Structures are given as structure tokens and as C-alpha cells.
Amino acid sequence: xxxxxxxxxxxxxxxxxxxxxxxxxxxxxxxxxxxxxxxxxxxxxxxxxxxxxxxxxxxxxxxxxxxxxxxxxxxxxxxxxxxxxxxxxxxxxxxxxxxxxxxxxxxxxxxxxxx
Amino acid sequence: xxxxxxxxxxxxxxxxxxxxxxxxxxxxxxxxxxxxxxxxxxxxxxxxxxxxxxxxxxxxxxxxxxxxxxxxxxxxxxxxxxxxxxxxxxxxxxxxxxxxxxxxxxxxxxxxxxxx
Lengths: 115, 116
Prior knowledge:
The complex is a heterodimer of chains A (115) and B (116).
Chain A: E1 4-7, E2 10-13, E3 19-25, E4 31-37, E5 43-50, E6 53-57, E7 64-67, E8 75-78, E9 87-94, E10 105-106, E11 110-114
Parallel strand pairs in A: 2-11
Antiparallel strand pairs in A: 1-3, 3-8, 4-5, 4-9, 5-6, 7-8, 9-10, 9-11
Chain B: E1 3-5, E2 10-14, E3 19-21, E4 24-26, E5 31-38, E6 44-50, E7 56-58, E8 64-68, E9 73-78, E10 87-97, E11 100-106, E12 110-115
């Protein structure tokens, strides 16, 4: 009964390809996030979705596009992959606004390697 | 703009010794503060959080942290560490307006290595 799951766990691909990473949460949360962790372990927010609306976009290249088919899923699509996209991508979820918890629950991560 | 500084990138300690991982933040508004732990090849797990109230916060695995508003610090401590505490530790801050949650800003992490 994994709370936040991501697929695939590992993704190796060539430059110029288009790929997707899937994320699902079964916590009933209304907000989901994507983070990028670089080779130096630095974590940076990329996107968040609340009730199917984008509420954060931290100057991420438009080759990256989040897609949320429903409240439990937030997939990350990446077009024209570049070497610099190699990183670990984490999905997270939380209950926004009405909750006093403010905790984000993280998935296990997807290690993307672009060759 | 908010920022988080973790003063030590690596902290080596011997088993059963006490440890303190330092975190300072800057923000122009009230904040929520968090410590997350990342074990090798795993996702992030919440250790503890400060939202309001008592400035001494107790978390899982025997960790605690103290919020110091005047020094804008939120240092993490454990009186006696175990080999299994070896991991990367991240301090994070989130601002809040009228009860809503802002962005989570992470520090660059501190690698805690516990030696036998």
C-alpha cells in the first residue's frame, strides 16, 4: 500500500528522445509536486498541481510538461531530452490549504540518465 | 526570497556520539520548517516539522530540533546516533500566507556518516 509511487524507477535514454515519468498517490491529497535532484543532491521544486491547476512553475524549460489526468496522478513529460536533464526526479503530494499538516509525502524517485 | 543554508555538507561521527546538524533560513514572512532524511537510493522521509507552538520539536528515530526565531535557525540533534542513521539530511522551509502552504525550499543537504 505504497503512498506515493513512481514508474519507472530507472530510465536510460538518448538525447533528443521524449519520455514520461508517472506518479500516483493513494493518500487522497489534492496537491502533487515534481522535484529535481541533481548530482550534488540539490533538490528543487519544478511543478505543483492543485485541483488540476498549475500553481507553481519554477522557470523550468518548456520541454518539461506536467499532466494530471486526475487528482491522484501527476505525470511528467519531457521532450527533446538533453544531457543536463540527467537527475533523480521525485514526485510528492500533500493536502493543501485546508490541512494543518503541511507535510509533503515523497515517492521513491526516478533516476533519469540521458546519454 | 526565502533560502536555507545547511552549514555542513558532511558530518562524520562515531556510533553512540551526539550529533547536531545545522540549518539557518532567511525569510521575510512566517515560515514552517522541516527536516527530511534520505537513505541511500530512497525517497525523502519526514523526520520532524515546526509549524507553531513549542520551539522544541521531537521527531522520529530519536531526533529533535529547536526553532530559534531570533537566530533564524532550526538545528537538528540526536543524543546518540546509530549506524543506521547514516543518510543525507535536508532542512526545508515553507512560507505561509493566511494558512496556505507556499513552496518548499530545500537546503543543499548534510551527509551524516556514522562510523563504528
